[in-house]
Specification:
This protein is α+β, with helices and mostly antiparallel strands and 133 residues long. Helix content is 21%, strand content 30%. Strands 3-6-4-5 form a four-stranded mixed beta sheet. Strands 1-2 form a two-stranded antiparallel ribbon. Helix 2 (92-102) links the parallel strand 4 (79-86) and strand 5.
């Protein structure tokens, strides 16, 4: 297990969030680094999951992250940073409610960016990640 230390985010957003201000991983304990490309809510059949439903899409995106990490014997607990792209900031609470079901403390760092759209016009969210094992 990688030795990680984090600085909690706090209560600045008025809701519980699944990210921290900063995280450090001890280099001597790292075997592997993994970069996961942005994932949208496409299932294993190539079908978009949760059209119009940010929570359902967030859940599928996280499952896609899990699948990618599993190929490298890693889990969501190994993620140290996510970049989250959304088409609508008003769904922030539902995104974090889902993330809190999957991510454990220490939470990864997180950047949130609003975009005008994705390659699939029905996609509402995309998440990329960096993990250390």
């Amino acid at each position: 297990m990688v030795n990680k230390k984090s600085i909690p985010f706090g209560d600045g957003m008025g809701m519980k969030v699944a990210f921290c201000n900063a995280i450090a991983a001890e280099e001597s304990s790292i075997k592997r680094q993994i970069w996961v490309s942005g994932q949208i809510a496409i299932d294993e059949k190539g079908t978009l999951v949760g059209k119009g439903d940010m929570a359902a899409q967030t859940e599928q995106v996280i499952k896609n992250l899990q699948t990618a990490l599993k190929e490298f014997d890693a889990t969501l607990d190994d993620i140290v940073q996510v970049v989250v792209y959304v088409t609508d900031m008003s769904s922030l609470k539902s995104i974090h409610d889902v993330r809190l079901k999957y991510f454990n403390s220490p939470y990864p760092t997180s950047t949130l960016i609003q975009v005008s759209g994705f390659v699939n016009p029905d996609a509402l969210i995309e998440i990329s990640a960096i993990a250390v094992v």
